Structures are given as C-alpha cells and as structure tokens.
Backbone:
C-alpha cells in the first residue's frame, strides 16, 4: 500500500481518504472487487479452470477464491458463468 501511495505521489492516509471519498471503500476493498470482477469475466469467457482463474487474479488457494466469490456474489465460482447476466457489475 505504501508503494502504491508513493507511486501516486501521496501518502497512505491521503490515498485511503481519497478512495473512501470517491468510491466509498478502502483501497483493499477496491482491489478485491476488481479481482473478483476479472475472475467473473474470465470464467464467463470459458476455457479457464476455476483453479487457474484463482491464480490469475491473485489467490494462492482456490478455496480462498471460492470463499471471496460466495461472500461477494452469493455464488461459488462454478455458478458464476451461468449467473453472469443476473449479477451487477
């Protein structure tokens, strides 16, 4: 996080405040959301296993990806491609 803030020319506290004010979430929440949206898109494309998608979006363990998907979308990864049109982006 410090490196990201430094790359943006600010400090950690200011970056967090900017994310909260602009997006209503902390930096880590935003990054988690982006990872899960990318995973959802990759699964919808087909041709990728759930384990492969988990690694591609930064989960070292597929069960952590499954837990995050269930918490965010209410669905496990294997259900995401079929439900893609019903989920908000």
Residues:
């Amino acid at each position: 996080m410090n490196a990201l803030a430094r790359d943006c020319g600010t400090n950690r506290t200011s970056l967090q405040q900017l994310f909260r004010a602009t997006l209503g979430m902390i930096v880590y929440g935003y990054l988690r959301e982006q990872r899960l949206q990318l995973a959802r898109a990759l699964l919808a494309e087909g041709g990728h296993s759930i384990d492969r998608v988990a690694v591609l979006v930064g989960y070292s363990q597929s069960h952590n990806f499954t837990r995050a998907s269930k918490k965010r979308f209410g669905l496990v990864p294997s259900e995401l491609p079929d439900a893609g049109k019903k989920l908000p982006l």
User: Anything to note?
Assistant: The CA atoms of residues 15 and 35 lie 19 Å apart.
